[in-house]
Write a structure and sequence with these properties.
Blueprint: E1 3-16, E2 19-26, E3 37-41, E4 55-58, E5 66-72, H1 76-84, E6 90-97, E7 110-115, H2 120-131, E8 138-144, H3 153-160, E9 164-168, H4 183-189, E10 195-199, H5 202-214, E11 220-222
Domain FAD-binding FR-type: 2-103
GO molecular function: 2 iron, 2 sulfur cluster binding; flavin adenine dinucleotide binding; oxidoreductase activity
Pfam families: FAD_binding_6, NAD_binding_1
């Protein structure tokens, strides 16, 4: 049974013209797996109401009482969120959804592949591994077009150190690859037992899934965003 709670916006961080981070204080909360996602509606409803129009967003945090969502304004509902959801406003979320990550395999090796705003589910996973003292089990490949597109770069670097590699495809930046993530990059850090997660645009997801399968990888996990 999914859980419904109202939440208040306590902070809005403008990462760019079309990407914002909303920090919500939950009225009630329940446990969830890192990597989960929610249904967010601007309407104020309870569990017994008919569920209204809503959209899906990954939980981009793993902390008590709060949830962060990093939202890209791409269409009708996300532009309503940008226009209507301000500090002090309330909305309703239903969660948890998804089975991207299974805690039973936390001691195995994990490679997170992120394209652009597809980094969002990994924020909760990275925090989870950090809290468990298991950060050494994870490796992040984070691909963006421009360096300024990176979200929470410093904090990721502090947590992951050499276990984060950044690919900036449209400009040359020191200490970043100026290329797409290749199969050579993947095989350098992942053997066939590594759990590999893919999150990005529809084509990013399907291209990497196909590449991994073609090269004999079988432990592949992803959330389809469209
Ligand atoms: C599991 C999961 C997790 C997700 N997590 C996140 C997250 O953390 N952050 C995030 O930002 N998003 C996330 N998404 C995606 C998010 O749910 C969608 O971006 C959102 O639902 C879009 O709703 P919308 O009404 O604003 O867009 P819509 O208006 O429904 O448009 C959707 C897409 O269609 C395109 N489109 C719209 N109209 C047209 C048209 N006339 N012609 C051509 N193309 C058009 C838009 O550009 C957009 O890409 C997630 C999705 C899933 C399934």
């Amino acid at each position: 049974m999914n859980f419904v709670t109202q939440a208040e916006v306590i902070e809005v961080i403008e990462h760019s013209k079309d990407i914002r981070e909303y920090v919500l204080r939950l009225e009630k909360e329940r446990k969830y797996n890192p990597g989960s996602f929610v249904q967010l509606t601007l309407d104020l409803v309870t569990a017994s109401d008919i569920w209204p129009d809503s959209r899906t967003f990954s939980i981009a945090s793993y902390e008590k009482g709060l949830m962060r969502f990093i939202i890209k304004n791409v269409g009708l509902y996300t532009s309503r969120i940008f226009n209507e959801l301000n500090i002090g406003d309330r909305c309703t979320i239903k969660y948890p959804f998804g089975d991207l990550f299974n805690k039973k395999i936390e001691n195995e090796r994990h490679l997170f592949i992120a394209g652009g705003v597809g980094i969002t589910p990994y924020f909760s996973l990275i925090k989870y591994f950090e809290l468990k003292g298991l950060s050494k089990n994870i490796h992040l490949f984070y691909s963006v077009r421009f360096f300024d597109d990176l979200l929470h770069y410093e904090s990721l670097k502090n947590t992951l150190g050499k276990n984060m590699e950044v690919f900036v495809t449209r400009e040359k930046i020191d200490n970043c690859y100026n290329s797409r993530i290749s199969i050579d990059d993947i095989s350098r850090v992942a053997d066939k037992e590594t759990n590999i997660y893919i999150c990005g645009s529809k084509t990013f997801n399907s291209d990497y899934k196909e590449l991994l399968i073609k090269n004999g990888y079988t432990k592949i996990y992803m959330d389809e965003w469209e």
